[in-house]
User: Fold this.
Amino acid sequence: MDETLIATINKLQDALAPLGGGSSSPVDLPQITVVGSQSSGKSSVLENIVGRDFLPRGTGIVTRRPLILQLVNRRPSKDSKKDTKDLLNLESGSNGNGGQSEDNEDEWGEFLHLPGKKFFNFDEIRQEIVNETEAKTGKNAGISPVPINLRIYSPHVLTLTLVDLPGLTKVPVGDQPKDIEKQIKDMILKFISKPNAIILSVNAANTDLANSDGLKLAREVDPEGSRTIGVLTKVDLMDQGTDVIEILAGRVIPLRYGYVPVINRGQKDIEQKKTIRAALLDEKKFFENHPSYSSKAHYCGTPYLAKKLNSILLHHIKQTLPEIKLRIETALKKYQSELASLGPETMDSPSSIVLSIITDFCNDYNGILDGEAKELSSLELSGGARISFVFHEIYKNGVNALDPFDQIKDSDIRTIMYNSSGAAPSLFVGTQAFEVLVKQQIHRFEDPSIRCINLIFDELVRILTQILQNPKYSRYPQLKEALSNSFIEFLRQALIPTQEFVTDIIQSEETYINTAHPDLLKGSQAMAMVQEKLHPKQVQVDPKTGKPIASHSPAPSITEDDKSQGFFGGFFSSKNKKRLAAMEAPPPVLKAVGAMSDRETMETEVIKLLIQSYFSIVKRTVADIIPKAIMLKLIIKSRNDIQKILLEKLYSSSDMSDLVKENELTKQRRQECLKMVDVLRHANEIVSSV
Ligand code: GDP
Ligand code: MG
Assistant:
């Protein structure tokens, strides 16, 4: 069971490898990452854990790409009776001859970039690592974050995943880039900052731990030391009489998983081709016989380190697997839905693409107008609801704000009264003056109505923009633009008849004043109201009905003119009989001036009441009918005609194949999504099988 867990992670690692690992991967797998200064012994530790000599060695920076090393414990073939315990029981000598460099049918390596090829010769593995490193980085000691994935099958390893990284260096050598230190640091951080990374911090015991660059970096991302495990190399090179006991006891820099001291082959050992097996035996003897370590020798050395790493990794995987599963599923869903919105790579003919985009657009348009759009927002009004807001809030308020009396002055009413009575003084002049004045005021409804049309036009364009945001339209940028242009052009043309229709409605209101409108105040009612206002005491209220009853006192009669104060009294009030007799011509501008007679006051007030009453009738009519007119001429028209128009303009065009040229970004993104979906689906199967 435990072994399958690690095996699962290994498989996942391979499945997700095409995504380039690193931070771009949606899933962060638990793995052990080796961190330390250059030449601290990182590669040596890894080789000792594997028990084979296979990593490139040399001076300077040798590890220049991340090496993801998956160790797979594999039962030996049937004729071999040895098992994994061999690793921990070295004296038994698993290979009998102890010749580690010899080929062995139970142990081999495989590279992810060379699927199916088994490397039984570990020298060839080393060569392949060198070749692959140079393939991506060149020979000039540059580095690359693209990992090499190597899997080693062996009965002598514990199943484990380790990542070897370039060592921390300070000074660029040769033609290394100037910022090599930063590049390496960034690469290491990319691996160890992920919360699922276990940090294997390698430090040479003969250097000061407090100055360890690897440990410093580990502390940056894991300040508690809760996922860092320390390794102390080169214990054999320590000065006589010194040891690492203080560090092991956690009294220098404590780590939750503690430190393991190890001894690798020195440079001389390597040159003399000392086998790892021999080195491991020497390591064991060293700790067992050293006065400082003999009492705790079984907590020292490479086999103990391997066991410890294996159990830490297992523990970590068990903890994180449910979350990994969830992440894979989430990422899979995300890419699947993006893929769906990008649409499949199409082999359809241009005409059928154009047709289906037009159909989609018309459906989307109608849906939004009807409030049936799939992605209805709860945060803001959209489509039909916004149109309704324009009609019922903005337009209605605009109409209601019109007040005829901010333009009509009492003196104007009087002048118009005179003018409208023409040459012959009429008996009752009110009606005509009222009509003249009210017509002028009704004209004022035109402005807000035209404004309303423009606001609706803007809303329809807004709906267009909203629809075209859907990625299915961005897929064909030219078609999208042509569609947008045709739609707006169509709306512009529809504006003209809409405006005509609306101004006609206002004009018809202007043209004929319906004085018989049932809601219009009656002349007699108006008069009674004015009399009550002017002579309140003379109006008595019928105690039974509560209505005003006819006044008994003589009200100024309209027909009974005050002869001494005639309409033009103001102009001819001069007592100079000579001037009167001279009969001067009227002045160029002749205005009704002077104090108003009772009758004039009365008539003015009556006319004002009637204007008020009629104006509010028109207000109601206009607020009701103009939206209906705009609905008919602009909104419904666009609904009904848009498909036909778009077909005419787009479907018939000779350059349809240009219109449906797919956006390069869409194509690329689709490829990426396809790859992600593929990889994640595979990963999902692997995780689900646990
Ligand atoms: P890396 O750069 O961190 O990968 O370090 P290497 O594993 O390449 O080791 C650097 C040098 O230190 C090599 O010459 C090793 O032989 C030597 N070395 C590593 N570990 C030990 C050790 O425990 N004892 C001794 N004596 N030499 C070691
Ligand atoms: Mg190395």
DSSP finds 21 helices and ten strands in the chain. Residues 36, 38-44, 57, 63, 167, 233-234, 236-237, 263-267, 270 surround guanosine-5'-diphosphate (ligand 1) (CB under 6 Å). Residues 79-101, 550-573 have pLDDT under 50 and may be disordered.
